[in-house]
Design a protein that fits this description.
Elements (H helix, E strand, L loop, with lengths): L2 E2 L1 E3 L5 E3 L11 E2 L6 E5 L7 E4 L14 H13 L4 E2 L12 E3 L2 E6 L5 H13 L3 E6 L11 H5 L2 E3 L3 E8 L4 E11 L3 E10 L5 H5 L14 H13 L3 H12 L18 H4 L3 H9 L4 H10 L11 H24 L1
């Protein structure tokens, strides 16, 4: 069943479900599809409207849980002067909360990558900023799903970021400085913001203490893990080895600097080694890009510009390779 908090009468006057004491003689309609809705009010879930004939409405695409209902209401109360369930006819989309040009999307259930990409690109092309916040089901562990990766953002200071919402604790949580480790999977720092203490403007300002990573990264241990995965014939590792072989390289016999730690392992994991090897096979950035594009790879981060990350990787390769030459000349 689809639910909404706001409905309108025949004159377009809107009303909150929570403001109605009970059923009335007035007919209420969905602000998006204009189909009839009816009040639902009980002790276990928040008051809301439900479509009488859901098939008539194209502005809702996913079912809602109690977590989603209370979460978007929390976001609406947190964002002063925001609109709850504002229908955007030019997009044929309905963000959970609209705050100026910021479209809040609180995602608590599975969503295909294709549908996520469609919604995100639609917002951006119409000059809205999509702010995806994930519910309890998607709070990260040591592994990240394709959908979790798709919801990641990036900035130069805090690295890869992922926003979470805990409606039960009335908290927004920012996971940042995501990093991939060859043995331990993904790890990150976390900053917690509370509804009663922190304003949304302060949260979005990114004034967060940058923490120095003290994790262990041993290039020889990394090579050992790669050797084991090759022996076990893991599909992803064999694919990376085949690419390297065709370019005259080998996964276990690259220059030592290729195995050094990097925040960009997050995006490519072991395949970053292949990109570093291609750096050695090219003389310019454009030539390097050409070699990369010859071997098509998937980019699962629609909120992060691929070009920006590739430029950073190339610059890092130049620094690491130069440092090696300086050490060898001493």
């Amino acid at each position: 069943m689809r639910r909404l908090f706001v409905a309108e009468n025949q004159f377009g006057i809107k009303i909150w479900a929570k403001d109605l004491a009970g059923p009335t003689c007035v007919d209420w309609y969905c602000p998006g599809c204009k189909g009839r809705v009816q009040l639902k009010k009980g002790k276990l879930i928040a008051a809301h409207f439900a479509h009488v004939a859901l098939e008539d409405c194209q502005s809702f695409s996913e079912g809602e849980t109690t977590e989603h209902l209370s979460g978007k209401l929390l976001l609406h109360q947190w964002a002063t002067n925001s609109e709850l369930e504002a229908y955007l006819p030019e997009l044929k989309q309905r963000p959970d909360v609209l705050w100026g040009n910021i479209a809040f999307e609180f995602q608590c259930s599975s969503l295909s990558f294709e549908r996520f990409l469609e919604r995100t690109e639609n917002y951006v092309s119409h000059r809205y900023y999509p702010w995806w916040l994930l519910g309890q089901q998607f709070h990260p562990k040591k592994r990240l799903s394709q959908f979790q990766k798709a919801c990641c953002y990036y900035d130069q200071k805090l690295g890869v970021k992922l926003w979470l919402l805990s409606e039960n604790d009335q908290e927004i949580r920012l996971c940042y400085q995501f990093q991939w480790h060859y043995q331990n999977g993904y790890n990150y720092e976390i900053q917690v913001f509370n509804y009663r203490r922190d304003s949304l403007r302060a949260i979005l300002s990114n004034k967060i203490m940058d923490k120095q990573s003290n994790r262990e990264w041993d290039i020889f241990a990394f090579q050992g893990v790669l050797k084991r995965k090759l022996c076990q014939r893991e599909a992803k590792i064999l694919a990376a080895q085949e690419k390297l072989y065709l370019q005259g390289g080998h996964l276990l016999h690259l220059p030592q600097w290729c195995y050094e730690d990097s925040r960009y392992f997050f995006f490519f994991e072991e395949e970053l080694l292949y990109l570093r090897w291609l750096y050695l096979k090219s003389s310019t950035y454009n030539q390097w890009l050409f070699l990369i594009e010859k071997d098509y790879f998937n980019w699962f981060f629609p909120l992060i510009p691929k070009e920006k990350i590739l430029q950073a990787i190339y610059f890092e390769c130049r620094i690491l390779a130069s440092s090696k030459k300086i050490r060898e000349s001493k």
